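Table S7 (text form). Paired inputs.
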Amino acid sequence: MVESKVLPSGSESGTYDIEQTAPTLAMVAQLAGVSLKTASRAINGEKHVAKETRERVLSVAENVGFRINAMASLLKRGVTTPVVSLITGDLSNPFYSMVAKGVEHEIRSHGIRLTIASSDEEPEAERELVRDFIDQRVYGLLVVSTLDSHGEYEAYQNRGVPLVFLDRPAVGLAADSFVLDNYAGAYEGTAHLISHGHTKIGYLGDYPRLRTRQLRFEGYQAAMVEAGIPDPLRWASNSAHDVDSAFAATKALLTLPEPPTAVFAGNNQITIGALQAITQFAPETALVGFDDFALSDLLGVTTISHDPTEMGRLAAKRVLARSGVRAQSCEETVLPTALRKRGSGERPPVR
């Protein structure tokens, strides 16, 4: 069977009969009215190609379903060991270790290696890492971004390296993202505390600029407002990014003249710091944390659980699918969360 695909307006050749064989670079060049070398440069994101020419070539490639041989392209550039790079916010957070595990399991069978770097939640460090990895033409780039907007990364998307966001979605940029159902998880955790009689519920959140923190805080706030609890922000605290700052923030809440009877912690590191402070200053305080952490089951900590390894695997799978292909659309994939009752979130209010 022969399929005839009509090119967008502006094409010099109109239509092209595509047989059962896969589309070739030569076909793209002919349809776009350029030389084979120019077509190759345009598709691989190389310099010295006019914008109009590049757009025409890429449009033709999309229309006929052309895929570059990513491995051959890498070898041509002298890269013999394909690498996928993962940029995280904090290498000490075990959540990202589980994400990296999922990525590595997915790419290993394809002969691709994983490199990991940390921005330490510093925007400029992230920008520098992204720029360096793009310049190295890695096979794919996975980013847990600390920026609040990503429009500046659009310039990198035409350079042939798949860019996928993890945990925190792309904002102001058309790019694939794999995130948790942050709003629903925080809402469920807060509503669970309310169902056990709590109305004085503290919230411990991460940096306010992070989309994960924003959505989790919105879920907490919605549950409090829906329950008719006055002044729901009275016990809210932000920028508790690590264990130490979470400990300090929890201590401050628990030593108030009218302290909360329960705490919702916005991530695993915050939960650990909160648990330490609760144990020391007010062990009767109920606690629900977002994310599991090591020994959370043995310590009896109720959490909003999910599967970071699966997040990493799915994101890596998307990078592999995008390699050598100019994406026609992007998706935000939302992974589910689940409440795990282990005791700390089921304590009744005692103050």
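Next pair, protein 2 of 2.
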Amino acid sequence: MQEHDFRKLLDKYLNGTITEEEKRLLDEFEEKLTSEDDSLHFINEAAKSREKKRIWDKVKAGTVSHTASKRGWKVAVAAAAIITGLLSGGYFYFYNSGLFTGKAIPENAITLELEDGSLRIIEENGSLAITGNDGSVIGRQKGKEIVYSGGDGTGDLKYNTLKVPYGKTFELRLSDGTRAYLNAGSSLKYPVRFLKGRDRSVYITGEAFLEVEKDSLHPFIVVTDNVNIRVLGTKFNISAYPEDETSDVVLVEGAVSLYEAGKQYDPSNVVVLKPGFKGSFNKKEKKISREQVTTSLYTSWMEGELIFRNMSFGNIIKKLERHYNVSIVNENKELAVKKFNANFGTQPIEKVLQELKVNYGIDYEIDETDVMIK
């Protein structure tokens, strides 16, 4: 979990607007956090001081929802205390689903976790040799892409995990030739080499566009927290952010089968998509629905564009936060469920907010990377 993700969830809790899914994420993070060593720190003193004042101001103002549970209040106060406490030694850093200790990781860094658990910082315009435990080169970074060497592996599967923070994107070419384009706030765990006779399984959190290399003998399986996607060779977009109410798969080319995560693949009990269709897994209802869509609306992020069609303002906020690496708090509750149409290219967040104000009368305040919708 990134720092601003945590701040956003805590803000929503204190404002009484947090959803059940977001509350679950906050609970899970608190449990993980309290299980770690108590010498952990915030990324730096300035950030810690800002959060101390901001969060405790809200706590003192009594902004917690009266309907909040005692357990929830305990979570909020414990989390606030962790941030604002006078800790000593080391650093503390929130980053996607991991906690890093020791040497500080830059807040907006792309990271690669190697098979031995060590981390490498990936510079977007850099060049880097990726090595295995035996020191052999298994891949190379070339600017905004990492390309892994071809060929089948032997023995046990060995994994790397690429994590891309908010505000950035990155590309991978796996050892079988499959290309993966990762959107902001996403991670992909994958074998450095696939094994002959085994399915090609990868694990995604967030959003990615995949161009899967055809191999009829080795099905390609994308595993998310809620839904799995089984393909032989195809192009599709998967959006599986933990905080979203649905996980969505949009098929551009080929065919894919969707089935609930944790269940065995059964050809007679899957949802099959054809090109131009979207499959959505509703996390609350545990059901997969299917509808025909314009695929370019869901892949425009690869060109740095954001296209919203009949989308709720609440979902638009999430996408803007990821794309621009900002934190947006919406104090206009009625606005959250209203639906809008909008197109944005490469303009800065200030320009986007101004266009929303001119076209829809949406008022706001912005302070660096913190946005307040009135």
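The radius of gyration is 21 Å.
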